[in-house]
């Protein structure tokens, strides 16, 4: 079966595991998924990220993070730019997610960046998505 939007599948796996209070979620690996996962780790939305090599493309394992009372750290996750509807943005139009409490992930010529990094570097290209505390966007 051919997958038309592997990033949306990746985000859905994270969203579903988070809703079910799972501690770990696995998905087929790719460079863009690894980049998204590393940003989530760096920004504190997930505990850890592992890439397991296999004979094919590898598997990315994400360890989800919850608060002291079991509250979800990732409260929203939304794909903005999709294969059928690409969304591009200028630096001054990069959205602030939850007034700066969330993040937008943007695909630029320098790779994947958060909205804050893109504003600092005066770059902004394709908005991938946003997370409730995170927003992610892709080229």
UniProtKB/TrEMBL annotation:
Q: Which family does it belong to?
A: Belongs to the universal ribosomal protein uS8 family.
Q: What keywords are annotated for this sequence in UniProt?
A: Ribonucleoprotein, Ribosomal protein, RNA-binding, rRNA-binding
Description of how the protein assembles with itself and partners: Part of the 30S ribosomal subunit. Contacts proteins S5 and S12.
* Transmembrane parts of this sequence: none
Q: Which residues form a coiled coil?
A: none
Recorded GO terms, molecular function?
rRNA binding; structural constituent of ribosome
Q: Please state the span of the N-terminal signal peptide per the UniProt entry.
A: none
Keyword rRNA-binding, does the record have it?
yes
- One Pfam match, given by its short name, reads Ribosomal_S8
Reported function = One of the primary rRNA binding proteins, it binds directly to 16S rRNA central domain where it helps coordinate assembly of the platform of the 30S subunit.
> For this chain's UniProt record, which GO biological process terms are given?
translation
- Entry GO terms, CC: cytoplasm; ribonucleoprotein complex; ribosome
Protein name, per record: Small ribosomal subunit protein uS8
């Amino acid at each position: 079966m051919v997958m038309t939007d592997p990033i949306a599948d990746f985000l859905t796996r994270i969203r579903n595991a988070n809703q079910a209070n799972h501690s770990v979620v696995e998905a087929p690996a790719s460079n863009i998924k690894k980049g998204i996962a590393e940003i989530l780790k760096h920004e504190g939305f997930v505990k850890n990220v592992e890439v397991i090599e296999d004979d094919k493309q590898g598997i990315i394992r994400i360890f989800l993070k919850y608060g002291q009372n079991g509250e979800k750290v990732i409260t929203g996750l939304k794909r903005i730019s999709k294969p059928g509807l690409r969304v591009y943005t200028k630096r001054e139009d990069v959205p602030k997610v939850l007034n700066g409490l969330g993040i937008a992930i943007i695909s630029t010529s320098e790779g994947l960046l958060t909205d804050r990094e893109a504003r600092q570097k005066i770059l902004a290209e394709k908005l991938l998505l946003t997370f409730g505390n995170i927003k992610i966007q892709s080229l």
